[in-house]
Specification:
Number of strands: 10
Strand content: 15-25%
Number of helices: 12
Largest sheet: 6 strands, mixed
Structural class: alpha/beta
Shape: globular
CATH architecture of the largest domain: 3-Layer(aba) Sandwich
Helix content: 40-55%
Number of domains: 2
Strand order of the largest sheet: 1-2-10-7-8-9
Length: about 350
């Protein structure tokens, strides 16, 4: 549990005359390759300290992939079996990673059934259902101990704008945004928090309307973020702004990012990056200087058969080209808008 360390802060180039710095905190460098490594570590510590885990009994999670990968790693570390309850459409690369760390997968067809199936499996096996969607916001200590916000501000202390105007996150459980938002208030920062939400997610409508029962008919196409219902770990009161990001814009953003920094990222990163670009564009037009920070949530190698596949994009009727054109115009000094 003590092997987790800091992650890098990557500068994303913008025109120098804007006097705006954009960074991505690269969470893909964790041992299990994603932002969810922090969450899994916190969930396991929380469960161990609460006495919920038993030797030899399985740990069970409802996850679209990355959380399951990271939880499989920690379960193997302490010698417990791990079962991930996931939808059949989950990336094969993520399934392979879960199995690499000794986990096994239990598949369901309907994304809305993963939590019910995980709870039932725990009852059948005498195992523990980790339930990230309930415990994410309370398992992570927002005052310290592997806190992403504390790490981020320590790194920014050496930059020309040490206190960013905005931090942009995305939400799957809502644990990361809750941690960042609470930390900002705990430390008296002036930094604002924006959460970028993909299509087919209930979070933005629920946050905007203050509706705890908001839901959507179908699930998000962006793995790891967006939910069909308002999850218990989503803490809307610590969020200053939400931006709805088209899925095609998220795909365009990660393809454009690769041309800038030579790195592939998942579409959750692209969702947040499009929102960060939107904020930077607004700052530029108002003549404001400062910094904006987003998250590089995981590497794009897990999604070669999805967000980097022309066949998958065509099947989903997603066309990133119009958004790519807007990004090229934006980086040439123009507006991101239409």
């Amino acid at each position: 549990m003590c092997r987790s360390s800091d992650t890098h802060l990557i500068a994303v180039p913008l025109p120098t005359e804007w006097n705006i710095d954009l960074y991505l905190k690269d969470e893909s460098t964790h041992p299990t390759g994603s932002l969810k490594h922090r969450l899994a570590r916190s969930l396991f510590l929380h469960a161990l300290c609460n006495g919920w885990l038993r030797p030899g009994r399985p740990v069970i999670e409802a996850s679209s992939g990355s959380t399951a990968v990271s939880e499989a790693y920690f379960a193997q570390l302490i010698g417990n079996p791990f079962i991930a309850v996931i939808t059949r459409g989950t990336s094969p690369n993520k399934i392979a990673l879960i199995e690499l760390y000794g986990g096994r997968c239990h598949f369901v067809d309907d994304p809305s059934e993963v939590a019910h199936a995980a709870r039932a499996l725990a009852a059948q096996t005498g195992g523990h259902y980790m339930d990230q969607f309930t415990y994410a916001e309370r398992a992570t200590d927002w005052r310290g101990n592997n806190n992403i916000a504390e790490s981020l501000f320590a790194q920014l202390s050496q930059e020309r704008f040490p206190e960013p105007r905005w931090i942009v996150a995305t939400a799957g459980t809502g644990g990361t945004s809750a941690t960042i938002g609470r930390y900002l208030r705990y430390t008296g920062r002036q930094t604002a928090l924006c959460v970028a939400d993909p299509e087919n997610s209930a979070f933005m409508n629920g946050w905007r309307d203050r509706d705890a029962d908001a839901s959507t008919r179908i699930g998000s196409r962006i793995e790891g973020i967006g939910r069909q219902r308002m999850e218990p770990s989503f803490v809307g009161d610590v969020i200053d702004r939400m931006i709805r990001v088209p899925d095609a814009a998220a795909v365009a953003s990660i393809r454009h990012l690769e041309s800038l920094i030579g790195r592939r990222a998942g579409a959750s990163t692209g969702t947040g990056l499009w929102a960060a670009y939107t904020i930077a564009d607004e700052m530029r037009r108002r003549g404001e200087s400062g910094s904006v920070v987003g998250l590089l949530c995981d590497g794009g190698e897990r999604y070669l058969d999805k967000y980097y596949s022309s066949e998958w994009l065509a099947a989903e009727s997603l066309d990133p080209q119009p958004y790519l054109q807007r990004l090229h115009r934006f980086h040439d000094g123009g507006s991101l808008g239409v």
